[in-house]
Give the backbone structure.
Amino acid sequence: MSQPVKVVVEPELCTACRACELACHYHHNGRFGTSRASVRLRYDADTSELAITFDDTCDQCADEAEPLCAHFCVAGAIRIRP
Amino acid sequence: MSESIWAGRILRVDLSRGEISEQPTSDFAEFAVGGRGIGQWILFREVEPGIDSYHPDNVLTIGAGALVGTLAPASCRLSVDTKNALTGGVCATNAGGHFAPELKYAGYDSVVVTGQSSRPVYLWIHDGEAELRDASHLWGLDTWQTEIALRRELGDPNVRVALIGPAGENLVRGACLITDRARAAGRGGAGAVMGSKRLKAVAVRGTGELAPANREAFLREVERCNRKLMESKIIEVYRAGGSMRFAGAGGPDGNFPQAVRNYRDSYWPLEKSRKIYEPALKAGYEVRRLGCFNCPISCSHFYAVRDGPYAGSAGEGFEINSVRAFGSNLDIDYPPAIIEAHNYCSRMGLDVDMAGACIAFAFEAYERGDLSREEANGLELTWGNHQAAMELLHAIVERCGVGDMLAEGVKRASEKLGRGSQAYALQVKGADLNEASMRPMKAWALGIILSTHGGGHLDGAPGAWAWRGHEEQARELFGNPNPGAAGEYQNQANVLIWFENYKAAIDMLGICYFTSMWLDALALSPGDYAALLSTGSGREYSAEEVMLIGQRLHNVQKAFNTLHTGHTRQDDRPPPRLEEPAKSGPFKGERLEPEKWEHMLDEYYLAQGWDLETGWQTRSSLQALGLDEVIAKLEAYGRLK
């Protein structure tokens, strides 16, 4: 899917820490992992280029106070849309 | 799927027999918690004194901390523990990146490697299964090439790899493990031990999960800890520039002492320093800031060189130590050379501290005439000559000519070279030194020299910067309102011991040390880590218990050193070079004065309850910690006081 409407994504600010994946997996499963995350980070270690993508399983954290990917993104690469 | 913050299993690999088995993590979790704790307890129990670091019976453990893979901040650390290739004692080295959480998601908290394979192999761990595979086609490749090849071979771009490069294969004693291209388990030659076992790599992929015992309470603690970190002014500096903010010969204000020209001085002129400090590198070379798994600080930098002789060199993982090792300590103020030297070490799997120290030693030997040009592979080893430094770096990895001697570390190299060169061999117990500030910061220096892994700041060395403005808190914790203050020899023992225990506890949890009170008195305390562990594990830990578990671990490591090396008080003294005064700058005249150093040692041994003459542990000090097992082994080898 295209990026969720609740968030703004700025890949140039991303530090590739994958806190978004970890938080997203937690939203879906209430456990810690990354395999069931709707958000994915793709990082090219040769160039440092990266991409942040969301798949169709993203429910925009409907039952959370705010999307957890944005909540745990300290770098501000995924932010709550104002 | 684990119902705990621990994956629940430890993988055991016997390379001599090609056998793989498992044991429950619960055999260790109660007293060793995870990561460095499990690794060091296994070493203590299973490696007998008298064997060489490269003997098949040496054990290499690769372990994730108890909180790794959870939402606890910077829950990413990997501990690599083995018998040190440089000192013969403890190697407890630590890396960030993404390997450690992947290991736990794959179903294992630690991997314990014993024996020696007859041919190169790699270990492939995936979702609760493990197998040894042939690595003949990977032997000789650098770490970056190998990671690419393994991901292609295993058909998954998300595979994480901890591995060695040519330095480890060639048994360079400072060889390290690399993961995620640049995250190094750097100190102590664990890469050489892995090379001696002919284990090229450990590749992991896991889709499993970890579960906190008390989900809501754990998340509350995570949120609270994250807020503390975001409110810290010092951590804000690290978020802005990483440890690189203190690189150069002075950091932002020019007053931070460094190692210059093999520690002959502690200060570099600002015109040189400002060519290689963080703002200059950011402006000229930075492509992106990067962080380890789930890290709110993100201290790493990706730098790329676009022109000149090192055009095309691009990579990450720069910390202050690379700039010191290949900058001020070699008098090189050309950033592209420093960037390439760092990247080369990452590719080859070589510790930057060891490499830089060896090159600085060779430069000084050349200048003094103790090493001729012919002996130096025909290189002109003059300060600032970055081309020669690079050639020498290659020679060390390839063990070519003088590089073969230097690949043994400066202690062994100086013993082989002779000619009085031991006087300027910067090493502690065989571990090469690449550290800042050692002359003026007496407690910092003591922490480095007393470190159980030889010489290094990541054990008990206290940072004075953390306590400015927090004198009352410091007085309460250590009985000293200015811990680690410049020029202060007295009343530092309790500070050191507190940090030794604290760091040991943090390494068992697998949280990055940059989240701690080592950086800022207002950052995460023993109570904060205890709260994360309690809510995560479901067993109540107090701050005092976490510190006690850390103290026990530190004592296990001290005992390992005593058993394996016989080091005594005389080995707890600084290299002679640091007794010579700094020649210039704000700390001109500062040195480590031998008499006052002895007073510091007395104070430290007394506070530990150890023997003043030998520096060894005593029965009563170990009884107080409930370490009967340690008492029995020391007694059996006649090394208990």
Summary: The domain at 9-205 of chain B is CATH 3.60.9.10 (Aldehyde Ferredoxin Oxidoreductase;  A, domain 1). Chain B has 24 helices and 17 strands.
